[in-house]
Amino acid sequence: MEQEKAIQAHRTSVIAGIAALREIKFKYYCKEVTGKVFSFITTIEDLEQAKLNINTYGRIQEIIARCEYTGEMDSKRTPEFPKGQEIWEGDTVKASIYKDEEPQILPVYFDKGAFWIDYEDSESDRVPVGCFVGSLEVIGNIHDNETSNQGSVGGQG
């Protein structure tokens, strides 16, 4: 019993430590029973505390995707996003490592514990999102493109 409590305490401290590094949020893309597609954002805390029932009122027929927040903001400042737009797994971004090169349009993805961009001119052809700090611009999301013919994507994000 004490070992179980120690393990739970360790898990809690690890989760708290990870959460302190960045806010852990998820964006869900869902299809209603009517066929309309929508999205919403929730935090890991809401999921853990079971404050969220994503199928309230039986609306959701299918979860199309669950995308995680990278903890990074893009470089574009607008009145709507004065600190930049949040960068999510599945976002399509304009990326360039060097100021004098043409930006590439690439998706952000999660693999082996990190968020990546497949960048053609790098030695490994894949670069962590954090290496592009201040030079990424969100231009869309791969799930917005996939679902645009099925209905409008609304909600948060």
Summarize the structure.
The longest helix is centred in the first third of the chain and has 20 residues, at 2-21. This protein has helices spanning 2-21, 44-48, 142-147, and strands at residues 25-32, 37-43, 60-73, 86-88, 91-95, 104-111, 114-117, 127-128, 137-141.
Features:
157 residues; alpha+beta; four-stranded antiparallel beta sheet; 9 strands; 36% strand; disordered C terminus
Q: What is the strand content?
A: 35-45%
Mean pLDDT: 76
**What can be said about the biggest beta sheet?**
5 strands, antiparallel
β-strand number: 9
Q: How many discrete domains?
A: 1
User: From the helix content, strand content and strand pairing, which structural class follows?
Assistant: alpha+beta
Give the CA-based shape.
elongated
What's the gyration radius in Å?
Answer: 18 Å
* Strand order in the largest sheet: 8-7-6-5-9
How many H/I helical runs? 3
Fraction of helical residues: 10-25%
Poorly predicted regions are 9-19, 147-157
Order of helices and strands: HEEHEEEEEEEH
Taking the alpha carbons of the first and last residues, their distance comes to: 43 Å
